[in-house]
Automatic annotation (TrEMBL):
It is an enzyme of class 3 (hydrolase). SUPFAM superfamilies: LexA/Signal peptidase (SSF51306). One of its GO terms (cellular component) is plasma membrane. InterPro entries: LexA/Signal_pep-like_sf, Pept_S26A_signal_pept_1, Peptidase_S26. Its main location: membrane. Keywords: Hydrolase, Membrane, Protease, Transmembrane, Transmembrane helix. Belongs to the peptidase S26 family. GO terms for molecular function: serine-type endopeptidase activity; signal peptidase activity. The active site is at residues 45, 93. Residues 15-183 form the Peptidase S26 domain. GO terms for biological process: signal peptide processing. This is Signal peptidase I. The lineage of its organism: Bacteria, Bacillati, Bacillota, Clostridia, Eubacteriales. The chain crosses the membrane at residues 21-39.
Length: 192
């Protein structure tokens, strides 16, 4: 047994390549499982902030107290789509309403949080106030204590809380928070 250990110790290939590879692989697996989450964006609901095909680097959410209005969050929501075939997808939307807040959406798309108009520099494509979409909800939403309210930045083309049967996303459905974009390389960096 002692001779076998000496042979392993003397084997430079194992020391220089195999052991570091196993260590790095183990660290990457732990980080992927518990810290980082990768998402590819398939829809235009967040344009121009996030384009179709962008790849985002996100971190899992463990502390809900760190979430704030304006964060871009990845979540699951079985009830989030009014289209049955889309009901099992992950969503990427902007956090608008926190627990116990009152959100009011006007016909022209203006959003108020607890009576204060929300300044949304990230919304470039607002709804047309003459467009009466029977599926789009407007009015007041009271966010439950264990839930959040999400809208897409591309308000003219986003299947978000305004269209969902239940407009709220609950804590157990939240997955991760977007940290930065890594693809395309020309847009590499923090996403706001």
């Amino acid at each position: 047994m002692k001779n076998k250990l000496l042979k392993l110790k003397d084997n430079k290939f194992i020391q220089d390549w195999i052991i570091p590879f196993v260590i790095v692989g183990t660290i990457c697996l732990i980080l992927k499982s518990f810290v980082f989450y990768n998402i590819n964006v398939p829809t235009p609901s967040m344009v121009p902030t996030v384009e179709i095909g962008n790849k985002m680097f996100t971190t899992y959410i463990y502390n809900f107290d760190n979430l704030k209005r304006g964060d871009i969050i990845v979540f699951n929501n079985d009830d989030a789509s009014y289209e049955k075939e889309n009901s099992d997808k992950e969503y990427l939307k902007r956090l608008i309403g926190l627990p116990n807040e009152e959100i009011r959406i006007e016909k022209d798309g203006t959003v108020y949080v607890d009576g204060i108009k929300l300044e949304e520099y990230y919304v470039k494509y607002q709804v047309d106030s003459n467009d009466i979409d029977p599926l789009r909800k407007i009015g007041t939403f009271k966010v439950p204590e264990d839930a959040y309210f999400f809208l897409g930045d591309n308000r003219a083309n986003s299947g978000d809380a305004r269209y969902w049967r239940d407009p709220y996303v609950y804590k157990n459905e939240l997955i991760s928070k977007v940290r930065f974009r890594f693809w395309p390389l020309s847009k590499f960096g923090k996403v706001e």
